């Protein structure tokens, strides 16, 4: 991420909204924003394949006899909508997959969700990204992802529907047709 360029444009943005970027409280703001964006949009720097490799530590499931669905629920993430660059908050992700000979380290499932969320996203696209990465990292075609989230571009501006939240689901492989598996994600 080009922090110098971000700083230059944030200074221009402050001027454009009628602020004085040289005033005491704003002097360090362009640098702060550049650091913040580098942190919260870190996932922009990596492809799904790279994230799968980064967090793809697995264990052979023969040792632990795991061939039923593994479900992890209530993984919390933040993301930013690509239309308004507004915060998606109170987001929880439920992930399920059926192992094929190996299982992912549990923390890696949460790390994959976090990194995929650190991009300008649509909630539907985030679900697809997470499903694709889990599928590659765990080496299985059978993955389900359910996301629930609030969009500040809907709750704090525009229509200002403060109580609304959005649920999206992505199914790969057996999850597409097996209603019992789908229920496990609820
Ligand atoms: N499907 C989907 N839509 C999203 C997501 N995040 C934001 N949006 C929507 O993107 C749409 C952008 O609509 P536009 O009409 O181009 O933008 P706008 O004029 O700011 O629209 P309003 O939000 O209705 O004021 C809005 O309806 C948002 O609610 C998301 O994750 N998924
Ligand atoms: Zn939005």
Automatic annotation (TrEMBL):
Keywords: GTP-binding, Hydrolase, Metal-binding, Nucleotide-binding, One-carbon metabolism, Zinc. Pathway: Cofactor biosynthesis; 7,8-dihydroneopterin triphosphate biosynthesis; 7,8-dihydroneopterin triphosphate from GTP: step 1/1. GO terms for molecular function: GTP binding; GTP cyclohydrolase I activity; zinc ion binding. It catalyses: GTP + H2O = 7,8-dihydroneopterin 3'-triphosphate + formate + H(+). Its EC number is 3.5.4.16. The keyword Phosphoprotein does not apply. It comes from the Bacteria. One of its GO terms (cellular component) is cytoplasm. One of its GO terms (biological process) is tetrahydrofolate biosynthetic process. Residues 9-183 form the GTP cyclohydrolase I domain. Transmembrane segments: none annotated. InterPro entries: GTP-CH-I_C/QueF, GTP-CH-I_N, GTP_CycHdrlase_I, GTP_CycHdrlase_I_dom. Zn(2+) binds at residues 81, 84, 153. PANTHER family: GTP CYCLOHYDROLASE 1, GTP CYCLOHYDROLASE I. NCBIfam families: PRK09347.1-3. Belongs to the GTP cyclohydrolase I family. Homopolymer. This is GTP cyclohydrolase 1.
